[in-house]
Amino acid sequence: MRRFLPVCLCLAAACGQSTASSSDATVAADVAADVDQPPVPADPDCNPIVGNDCWSGWPSNFWLQAGATPHLDLPAAKMPANSDGKLVDVTEWNRRDGFSPNSPIVVLLPTPPTATLLPDETRPALTLTADLPIVLLDAKTGAFIPFMAELDANADVPARQALLIRLWTPVQENSRVIVALTDKLLDGKGQPYAPTATFQRLLAGKATGYARIDGQLADWQADLTAIEKAGLARSHLVAAWHYDTASTTWTHAPALAMRDALATAVGQTGLGYHIDMVETSTETAALLPNLPSPTVDNRVVIQEMHPDVALRVRGTFQAPLYLTGTGDDATLNWQGNPPAIVQNGLVTRPFILLVPPNVFARHKPAQLMLYGHGFLRGACKEGCVQPGDAEFFPHFVHAAGVVSIGTDWWGLAYTELPLAVQAGNDFSLLTRITDKLAAGAVLPIALTRMATGALANDPWLQFDPDKKPLIDKAQPLVYYGNSLGGIMGTTMSSLHPDLTRMVMNVAGGGWSTLLNRSSDFAPFLGIINGVYPDKFNQQLLFAMSQSLWDLSDPINFADHVIKTPFANTQPNRRALWPMSMGDSQVANLTSQMLNRVAQVPVSLPVFEVWPLNLTTADVPVAGNTCLQWDSERGTHPPGNGTRETDNLAHYATRWMPEFEQMIWRFLFDDGLVEQRYCLAGGRDEDGKLPCNLKEVVPITYDQSPPLPVIPPPPIP
Q1: In the list 119, 184, 214, 519, which could disulfide-bond 133, CB 3.0-4.6 Å?
Q2: How many CB atoms lie within 10 A of CB 316?
Q3: What does the domain layout of the chain look like in residue ranges?
Q4: CA 421: distance to chain centroid?
Q5: Phi-psi label, residue 288: left if phi above 0, alpha if psi -120 to 50, beta otherwise
């Protein structure tokens, strides 16, 4: 994520008060009189099953139109409004055939429950027990779904404090999740909640008067049967409902379709490119015989270079466009019924190429590394360094001795900061970010094929006297990304046909969970509070937003990096997800979630046990693992409270020479992974694994740590 410039992330939240659940007094009287004729609801579009809000609990099939072609049916008039009175547009949600498989469950009870009874992130509910206040079941299998629950730590009015339930292990697309609240869930006075009158009718096997329920009454009754089979008596239920998750049409299928179409369109050599600027020193220019002088071509700039950069090329490349345009208002170009994403011409996107001094010293072509930048930054923001700057991108490229290329993550680069602010003020505009992320996730395919094709053959980028290209096209393509480069890098890596080894550093998954837990989000929360002041509606819209993020969220793609790779990707791929403990920007909870989806083991020993995550004690391990690193920056209390300050753990680990030696070995040598470099170097705080190293996060080049020894010395 972006250093010091926090993210207004799009997640702008929501709203004014929603309409409360309707006509339960009428229903209660009806049940008491045991009248079979159901009442007429005062508001048929408000969910009457649980709580004090029209949208409690979310998600629910109360808002799903069933049938041969199911789709969400969110009532436009009930959506939260911003301070200008503009309701959130339901169009993008109502396209979908189900809810996000990764949506938080949001409930508003009459008064907040006792927090100490909730199985929070420190002690999630991993098995079904009789004393659980909440139960989640897979309707198809009857299996218990592990979860955690918490109260919204940001709520300022108890009556609007959301109960947030997060699935500990993800469910698949086309699943049905049953949610049950039991009488073990107690209010602040230690008393169980009373079932609503409408839910009492369901318990009695009666119609409710709500067409949204009674039209699928058999499904609602099946919930109660499944709950009983799991061992929970109806008499202990406070509320129960179900929701269906969307099909792959609304998770990874659109990205796959764009990938396949793009890969065919760009071929093996890419489409057009243009060099905007070549920056180098007099000494390096002398090694490039076909590079014109600045007097012949003013795109060539001779200047003092950063010590880590001998040659920098800035330019643009072309790729197929799958959006409605290239402006801020562009969204995915859906056409037809059923909708499909259709190419809309070409788009021109920026790139930057870095060549370090040691490549010229070796005087032979070097391996190409694709690089992924951080949140609300850009490839040039991190690579267009001046001599006194400290940036990790050129530092690691120099340490590795490779040529590296990168582009901007479309949707969350620095150029989209105004768009993020707009989305914060009007949640309806969020798709302008999420759709760009989805379309942008496949653009690196066009970039790297251009780099190893047309750009590698550019006469300007050839050595003297042999006229060899700077880029060794015969070497396998590898990837390294930090922060957003780890998050979106996970998605991109699952899709890229040519990548062989990938490092996704300090990554997490599940944007709806990440937001409140990121220090980047904190400064923008004040803006959101002013526009969408109601805290329940904020959490509701964060949960709703997950359906929009799903098209590129790594939580839907991580298992396709290694475990079940998509077709047309390289065989025998290897991936590495390093984590920084106590990370203020990408919460470790979201790293856990991503790792559980990726289904690669966490290397032992660990600082913190991650329940239900695979582990391995192999040293070294042949890639495909997650490692915990500690820079002794502290931790954060559990809960979804926003991290008000950044402890810099997010940055510190990447600057450790020992960390860089590990990454170099994995990406460019035998592909093995181990942390023991921290022991061999003698800097580890306790001389034991896992590594705990203090590292300065440099602000200027003079503060940068020395380049690591490459190749690293043998480990005893």
Answers
A1: 184
A2: 15
A3: 24-250, 253-703
A4: 19
A5: beta
Q: How many residues does the chain have?
A: 716
Say if CB 513 and CB 543 are below 8 A apart: no
Q: What is the pTM of this model?
A: 0.94
Q: Which amino acid is at 629?
A: W
Residue 7 pLDDT greater than 50, yes or no: no
Peptide bond into 16 cis (omega under 30): no
Say how many Å lie between the first and final Cα of the chain, rounded. 36
Cβ pair 407, 349 in contact under 8 A: yes
Sign of CA dihedral 202, 205, 207, 212: positive
- At 95, the amino acid letter reads R
- Give residue-wise pLDDT tens across range 220-260: 999 999 999 999 999 999 999 999 999 999 999 999 999 99
CATH superfamily, region 253-703? Alpha/Beta hydrolase fold, catalytic domain (3.40.50.1820)
User: Are 194 and 27 a contacting pair, CB within 8 Å?
Assistant: no
Which positions ≥6 away from 35 have C-beta within 8 Å? Answer: none
Euclidean distance between CA atoms 458 and 449, whole angstroms: 14
Helix axes 522-531 and 417-425, enclosed angle (nearest 10): 40
Question: What does DSSP assign to residue 515?
Answer: G
Complete DSSP assignment for 663-695: HHHHHHSS--B-STHHHHTT--SSSSSSPB---
- Distance set, CA 74 to CA 45, 77, 243, 547, 551 (Å): 9, 9, 14, 13, 20
